[in-house]
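Researcher: Quick sanity check before group meeting.
Model: Go ahead. Protein one:
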Amino acid sequence: MPEQQTAGAAASQLSTVRDFLRWALSEFRAAKLVHGHGTTSATNEAAFLILEALHLPVDDINPWLDARLLEAEKQKLAALIRARIDTRLPAAYLVKRAYIQGVPFYVDERVIVPRSYIGELMFSGVFGGGEASLIEDAAAVTSVLDLCTGSGCLAILAAGIFRDAEVDAADLSADALEVARINIDEHDVADRVSLLQGDLFDAVEGRSYDIIIANPPYVAGGEVAAFPPEYGHEPVMAHLGGEDGLDIVRRILGEAADHLNPGGGLLCEIGTGRERLVDNYPQLDFLWLDTEESEGEVFWITREQLLEAAL
């Protein structure tokens, strides 16, 4: 096949990691690939694909640039780079791996590639119990719900932060929960993270929590219809949030107070819908949390604030 010949020709002419990085970057740019699944540029995605395929640390390619590659390694890299272009699959799907703040997770096409701003916030100290913390004492948190868990990554991170908490991870997709099970087993937290299938709070009827984390589908229908191929490979239900993107967020806001313990709160990611959400709920005092990569895309609101607004 022509694609295999192209990959084979590259493998025969390139020798080092630097060679493959340069070739991949040129090919990615020429193919006008779209990036955004854990990487934000052709350079970063090429570096990630190479390092992960070679089982090297993915944080910095520079120490390995002049390393000469074995023939089998060259063949593998050439085939992966060619596959990224020909299939338009995000690199994370090709190597079955994605990272949040350096923590690795298994992924495949059954789940969205994890890239939540909530993961960044969880490592920033918002639950650290200090002056800027959303809660007084992380050690006092004994129950956490991760809604729309997907690959289970946020539930697993929550189990690491709240050491004395039981974590429920809920999703409507049985396929997604199969992937979450793989990650829960890999991270050895099956004794503390439980998987539940159902439509939002239907999965946890009668249960309440100290903290609810939610990264629901929040992309507007028109935007989903216009997705480039890379995003089209992800499950549509993991993106589609109705006509304006906020249908599921509204449902969560309407029911969250019934599933929060006194003093508890909801941490929710909504993408770029802040203005619409504030217009819809002028009675709610959202606390908007920024990250290095986002502004006004994640909010925190307490059970008491939700009850006071009588949603």
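Researcher: Fine. The other one?
Model: Protein two, sequence then structure:
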Amino acid sequence: MRVIEITNGAGPAEALTLAERPDPAPGPGQIRIRVHASGVNRPDLLQRNGLYPPPPGASDILGLEVAGEVDQLGEGVTRWAVGDRVCALLGGGGYADRVVVDARHALPVPDALDFIQAAALPETVCTVFANVFEAGALKAGETLLVHGATSGIGVTAVQMAKAAGAKVIATSRGPAKADAARALGADLSLDATAGDMADAIRAFGGADVVLDMLGADYAALNQAVLNPFGRWVVIATLTGALAEIDLLRLMMKRIVLTGSTLRARPADEKARLISAVETSVWPWLAAGTLRPPIDAVFPLEQAALAHQRLEGGSHVGKIVLTA
């Protein structure tokens, strides 16, 4: 099968090269997927730069989510059949023609979606569900503040929060991105390059949950605009990992500060999360209230261009590779 490898194990986007490896075979409880499309995510960039190694037992090939057709079943698999359209959450291996995955980590591709759209779902939707709805405990009528609202995670968080009956405040860089977030359903969409945003957020009523992908540079803002009993959930640190926290303010507001990663979670925990997502989120896809916006599509052999597009920061929505 064709795969994308990283020359010398790490490097710039140009280090991504097309290679061949033997087709994998599914073990007990696994399925093999003939990959039609793979999502591109920021953790892929980190791994390419040698900063995010795969967890023990995971493939060294990049790629945390795919969509395609089941083409082989491992022993004991009963839910899936050869030919089923599935998308799946991976620990690695997505930038390839075929991948094996725990059968419990796969989801049916919704009828209304093609493989490109479906490949943009598993990593993104699971991340939002685990952090906004489980760790952040967002409820209908509350307000979610999303930083980086036009990223792959951001566009999904905006739509999922709205589908759940919450209000959304979106921040993004530049008026075009602010318009894009507003078009996706954000109730208040702010251009982060236009000056301090705290007054506008407080005037809107503040935030009950913050989904923070930016880290240090936004720490003061988050503390200022979170409402009493607010939840601040950190999932990335694009502006830095070391931030100043006013502990007295956290105490007075009873703010909960938490964070998580997804890739290294145990297989059973991922299976639980996938099941919860299918129950809670898949009906939104069927109803059309959630759709993954696709920014750009590249063939597998142009993975370097896909990474350059993501690193450039001008994208709105997900970037996908087609096998």
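Researcher: One line on it for the slide.
Model: The chain has eleven helices and 15 strands.
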